[in-house]
């Protein structure tokens, strides 16, 4: 039995609730009276309620996010029906803005807006003593910005199961200096660093316990050069098999001191998420985004030409002021820089963000249900937006998955627009299947084969060779039916030997990181374009 429960509904089991671990770590003397429970949005709401009530709690704190807001509403509603005496405390991005909050939040007894590391513990102490104000239940408990030096780090709360099976989130800083209007970080306070030495000690502890994949959630990892250098130097001195580090980078900030460290990492150890979002300077000004696109382009090119970094670049469609031609030109520009992944995102109206100031002028129309995606605007009608959604999902299936790293370039040849050719394929694929998900890989491969050889009329032997290398790169040994006549001409790809036989060293070929990233490591993309 636990008097205080900290809970949330993760998008899937693989994810961990980083915020809840911070809250639990900072309960201090109340920890013995508390428990952390994680669920997923796939679980039945009443089953979740049953598990919560089995603990007979007095206080239940929920983390509410864009991916779980509907499911959390069902859980909280049932919980209040069955046990109205249980005190519900809500926190998280979906409930942080008092003027833009889901109506069902009125069911809660308390809502904490802002960083709740210390505020939740303070509220619990007051509630346990019976000293909390009754009037507080009708308003928001505004948390004071915590002194990060006083916040207990949560990394000891990652279990052995977490370390072996789930995403391990870490952070060295909070906040963002930029004011991009579509992003929740536009509402953040200036960047604040966590004390560096305790943080690195915690990273050492995770390494000692077997953690090999670290996902940094810092919005601007390369903002503070002193800290980013210290972190890279720390991990560079501790290269172990399987080490994988994910960072979010400011695109136009890559000083020589960082470059000198980055080039020393073996291929595949580092993944940089680089948010380009738009190459259109006028659109960037419109949404208050400061970015030197020329420098960002130089940095992306340098990363691909001189390092083994896995580059994950982001673009957004649906931004006010950007039409289809502008987005297509930006996509093509990014493709030419050859990041391993291009995440094509859909503009969302996140709660409290100032992007809504463009609604009238640009006729922005968003879905009222999470994730609040743009439906249409003045420059992109609903039909075009639907085509772009399918394009984004198709690009993810073909290019980002790592299942077609050589073959993907066959969709366009020199001088052709990658966007136009893949946009046409996404439409064709939808006509054939009526879907953009749930297509098994062998079936998807067959559609790619048909399109490239029947629609674009590439030579069958050359396409078969590329597809077979891509298919085998993932360790598969079966033979897709459409490729069987050409199997003997398809050698196994390089770099598929045992990773345990490869030493750690500069740009070594160890098996590093998640499986999808591994598929990109040894692809010879120079073979990816064939002549029709």
Count of β-strands: 16
Strand content: 5-15%
> How many separate domains?
3
Uncertain segments are 134-138, 493-511, 524-532
Oligomeric state, counting identical vs distinct chains: single chain
CATH topology of the largest domain, by name, is pyruvate-formate lyase- activating enzyme
Strand order of the largest sheet: 2-1-3-4-5-6
CATH superfamily of the largest domain: tm_1862 like domain
CATH hierarchy class name of the largest domain? Alpha Beta
Helix content class: 25-40%
Query: How large is the count of helical segments?
Result: 17
Mean pLDDT: 90
Q: Calculate Rg over CA atoms.
A: 25 Å
Structural class: alpha/beta
Note the overall shape. globular
Using the 3D structure, state the CATH architecture of the largest domain. Answer: Alpha-Beta Horseshoe
Gap between N and C termini? 69 Å
Largest sheet: 6 strands, parallel
Structure in words:
There is one protein chain. 36% of the residues lie in helices and 14% in strands. The chain has 532 residues and is α/β, with parallel strands linked by helices. It has three domains: 4-149, Rossmann fold (3-Layer(aba) Sandwich), CATH 3.40.50.280; 168-380, tm_1862 like domain (pyruvate-formate lyase- activating enzyme, Alpha-Beta Horseshoe), CATH 3.80.30; 402-532, no CATH class. The strands form four sheets. A six-stranded parallel sheet has the order 2-1-3-4-5-6, with helices on both faces. Strands 7-10-11-12-13-14 form a six-stranded parallel sheet. Strands 8-9 form a two-stranded antiparallel ribbon. The radius of gyration is 25 Å and the shape is globular. Residues 134-138, 493-511 and 524-532 have low confidence and may be disordered.
């Amino acid at each position: 039995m636990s008097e205080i429960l900290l809970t949330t509904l993760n998008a899937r089991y693989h994810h961990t609730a980083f915020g809840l671990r911070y809250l639990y770590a900072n309960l201090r003397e109340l920890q013995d009276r508390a428990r952390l429970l994680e669920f997923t949005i796939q679980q039945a709401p009443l089953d979740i309620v049953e598990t919560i009530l089995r603990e007979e709690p007095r206080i239940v704190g929920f983390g509410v996010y864009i991916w779980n807001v509907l499911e959390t509403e069902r859980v909280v509603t049932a919980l209040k029906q069955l046990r109205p005496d249980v005190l519900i405390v809500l926190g998280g991005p979906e409930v942080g803005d008092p003027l833009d909050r889901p109506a069902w939040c009125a069911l809660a007894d308390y809502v904490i807006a802002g960083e709740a590391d210390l505020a939740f513990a303070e509220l619990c102490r007051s509630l346990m003593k019976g000293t909390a104000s009754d009037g507080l239940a009708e308003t928001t408990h505004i948390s004071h910005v915590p002194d990060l030096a006083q916040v207990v780090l949560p990394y000891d709360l990652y279990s052995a199961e977490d370390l072996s099976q789930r995403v391990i989130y870490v952070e060295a800083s909070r906040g963002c200096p930029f004011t991009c209007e579509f992003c929740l970080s536009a509402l953040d306070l200036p960047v604040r660093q966590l004390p560096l030495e305790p943080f690195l000690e915690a990273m050492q502890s995770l390494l000692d316990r077997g953690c090999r994949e670290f996902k940094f959630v810092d919005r601007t990892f390369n903002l503070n050069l002193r800290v980013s250098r210290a972190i890279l130097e720390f991990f560079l001195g501790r290269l172990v098999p399987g080490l994988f580090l994910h960072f979010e980078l400011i695109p136009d900030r890559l000083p020589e001191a960082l470059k000198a460290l980055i080039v020393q990492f073996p291929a595949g150890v580092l993944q940089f998420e680089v948010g380009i979002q738009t190459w259109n300077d006028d659109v960037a000004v419109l949404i208050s985004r400061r970015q030197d696109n020329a420098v960002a382009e130089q940095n992306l090119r340098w990363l691909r030409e001189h390092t083994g970094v896995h580059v994950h670049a982001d673009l957004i469609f649906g931004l006010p002021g950007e039409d289809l031609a502008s987005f297509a030109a930006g996509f093509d520009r990014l493709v030419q820089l050859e990041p391993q992944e291009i995440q094509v995102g859909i503009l969302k109206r996140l709660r409290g963000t100032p992007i809504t100031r463009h609604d009238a002028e640009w006729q922005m129309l968003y879905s009222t249900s999470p994730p609040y995606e743009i439906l249409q605007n003045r420059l992109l009608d609903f039909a075009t937006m639907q085509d772009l959604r399918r394009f984004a999902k198709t690009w993810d299936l073909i290019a980002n998955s790592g299942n077609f790293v050589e073959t993907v370039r066959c969709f366009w040849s020199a001088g052709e627009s990658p966007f136009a050719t893949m946009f046409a394929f996404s439409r064709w694929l939808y006509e054939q299947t009526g879907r953009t998900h749930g297509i098994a890989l062998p079936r998807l491969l067959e559609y790619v084969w048909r399109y490239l050889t029947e629609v674009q009329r590439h030579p069958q032997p050359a396409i078969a060779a590329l597809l077979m290398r891509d298919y085998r790169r993932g360790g598969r040994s079966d033979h897709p039916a459409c490729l069987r006549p050409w199997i003997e001409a398809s050698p196994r790809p390089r770099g598929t030997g045992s990773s345990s036989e490869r030493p750690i060293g500069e740009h070594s070929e160890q098996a590093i990181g998640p499986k999808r990233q591994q598929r990109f490591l040894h692809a010879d993309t120079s073979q990816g374009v064939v002549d029709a």
